[in-house]
Amino acid sequence: MKENNLGQKCEYTDDCTVFNSKEETNGTPVYIYRNVFCNRGYKGWKNCEQYIEYKLNTIPKDQRMMSENKMIDLNNVTQDEREILLLLERTGKCLYGNIFKELNISSTKGAELILSLASKGYIINEGKTSFYQLNGDLI
Ligand code: SF4
């Protein structure tokens, strides 16, 4: 994901219920959301959980389904991805933002790693929550 798109509007503004709301969201006025997240390029979008959810929903459904017998080969992932997988194995599940805190990685890098692992079907989020868990057994 390019970082040089500061000021670019999020691709989901047409559909996004947060962006199009006339009400406050979680007590925050909509214009704050727009200034902090929506109109800030990837630096803003990556901090928006709604954005991550939209991105994850572009991943084919069969990859997002809980898998019973899936093996996740730690040799087929990067070192950073491996650390997230090992964290999720240790904790069982972890909140999106806590993954970054636990591993001391930036939210930009963390968002990319989580999207990468989810697009490979290695991790899934629990229902519509921001909790992530392994989608198979590590080998
Ligand atoms: S950044 Fe988040 S709140 Fe703003 S339009 Fe995109 S998904 Fe919606």
Describe this structure in words.
There is one protein chain. By secondary structure, this protein is mainly alpha-helical. It has two domains: 1-58, no CATH class; 61-138, Winged helix-like DNA-binding domain superfamily/Winged helix DNA-binding domain (Arc Repressor Mutant, subunit A), CATH 1.10.10.10. 43% of the residues lie in helices and 9% in strands. It contains seven helices and five strands. It has helices spanning 30-38, 42-45, 49-57, 61-64, 79-91, 96-103, 107-119, and strands spanning 71-72, 94-95, 123-125, 131-134, 137-138. It has a three-stranded antiparallel β-sheet with strand order 2-4-3. A two-stranded parallel sheet has the order 1-5. Residues 10, 12-13, 16, 18-19, 33, 37-38, 45, 48, 50-51, 54 line the site of iron/sulfur cluster (SF4).
State the shape: elongated
Approximate helicity band: 40-55%
Which cofactors or ions or other ligands sit in this model?
iron/sulfur cluster
- Unreliable stretches (pLDDT < 50, length at least 5) are none
N-to-C CA distance: 29 Å
Query: Tally of extended strands?
Result: 5
User: What does the main sheet amount to?
Assistant: 3 strands, antiparallel
- Kindly estimate the percentage of residues that lie in beta strands according to DSSP: 5-15%
Strand arrangement in the largest pleated sheet: 2-4-3
CATH topology of the largest domain: Arc Repressor Mutant, subunit A
| CATH superfamily membership of the largest domain | Winged helix-like DNA-binding domain superfamily/Winged helix DNA-binding domain
